[in-house]
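BUG: 3D viewer hangs when loading the predicted structure for this chain

Environment: internal workstation, default settings.
Expected: structure renders.
Actual: progress bar stalls at 90%.

Input used:
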Amino acid sequence: MRVKKILWGTGKILLFVTLISTGLLISGFYTHPSFMEEQISQVWPSFKKTQFNRSFQEFKEQQCSEYRSLASQLNDKYFDYIWNSAYQKFGDVIKTKDQIRPYYLEKKLILVDSSDVYVVDSLFHSYAFLTKDAKILLDDLGKRFQEKIRNTSFRNARILVTSLLRTESTVKRLMRRNRNSLRISSHLHGTTFDIAHNEFVADQSLNEAEIAYLREILAETLNEFRAQDRCFVTYEMNQACFHVVNKKSNS
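Structure tokens produced before the viewer hung:
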């Protein structure tokens, strides 16, 4: 009986040592594969040829590249799009909101209301109208964004539209509050809308990490349309929005 206890205790010790040694060996290959290969090869010269060693080749150091937000790379400039925007305007620049109605009745301006894929925010310096082509662009952007988040826990989240058509009167008011605003704005042409990148409309409250995730999905969506020559996009940090301008082809 005593011999059995001794053998049982010795077996447990050997098993423990074996497990620890194996763990250290594997850990060494994870952290310092080249060093481990060199040390074992001194004792076992043919080690480099073994299947065991080849299985650890994937653990060798790989150079990492720094992640860069796609949102910040959407940086079309004012002079990239202002003339294209003016070229597709619906008519004369509107001075006050009273002049919107005739263009709406002629269907040169389309009313933009909240939908299943986006929400129109409370508008203080613009009006919920766009040209037909710009409205189609907004609808398509909203749908594509929804497709990308369909299989996530954010599948009911919608983008927030914060600005659309502006008049000369609203531009002047905005310039008094925001020195970065321009008197000749593409928002005057009905071709332009802003989408918030720090806020989304969802069934649940969103933390900063979740908002950052949705911002990148939105940026990815915008970049796809931009690559298809359907729009210009500028990531505006001060205004916390993507400034999106419908692009008219020269053809």
